[in-house]
From TrEMBL:
The lineage of its organism: Bacteria, Pseudomonadati, Pseudomonadota, Gammaproteobacteria, Alteromonadales. The keyword NADP does not apply. GO terms for molecular function: metal ion binding. It comes from Shewanella sediminis (strain HAW-EB3). Keywords: Electron transport, Heme, Iron, Metal-binding, Periplasm, Signal, Transport. This is Tetraheme cytochrome c.
Length: 126
């Protein structure tokens, strides 16, 4: 019985640190890690608790405004009907859709519009 209990305790101790580690996309982890190797959650979340969704202004501080993103992802061939629409300039929402509706940092990102449509954005950072 003690052997089983010790094995269970050891398993918990080995899994606990991995479960509490911050899961981030590599391209953000690089720039959010300080000199001591600690991820600076406040860079996106501010002083709020970590589970708070970052404000759009936090995304915009590095990536530019919604209008800037729409211009960067516009394609000259968007005039045709067979081309997928600009993901940052929605026909329904314009440039007002919050970044976090599609882009997730701590889990897989999704295409919000695919709740009703079937768009594929192969260059989307997941």
């Amino acid at each position: 019985m003690f052997k089983t209990l010790n094995t269970l305790l050891l398993a918990c101790l080995l899994v606990a640190p991995a479960a509490s580690a911050v899961q981030m996309k590599d391209y953000h982890k690089e720039i959010m890690t300080n000199d001591n190797g600690k991820v600076e959650c406040a860079a996106c979340h501010g002083d709020a608790k970590r589970k708070t969704i970052p404000a759009a202004s936090q995304c915009e501080s590095c990536h530019g405004s919604s209008d800037d993103m729409a211009m960067q992802t516009a394609r000259p061939e968007d005039a045709g009907h067979d081309v997928e629409p600009n993901p940052h300039d929605s026909l329904h929402y314009g440039t007002d859709l919050p970044c976090t509706y599609c882009h997730q940092e701590h889990k897989e990102s999704t295409v919000y519009c695919n709740q009703c449509h079937e768009f594929e954005y192969p260059d989307m950072k997941r």
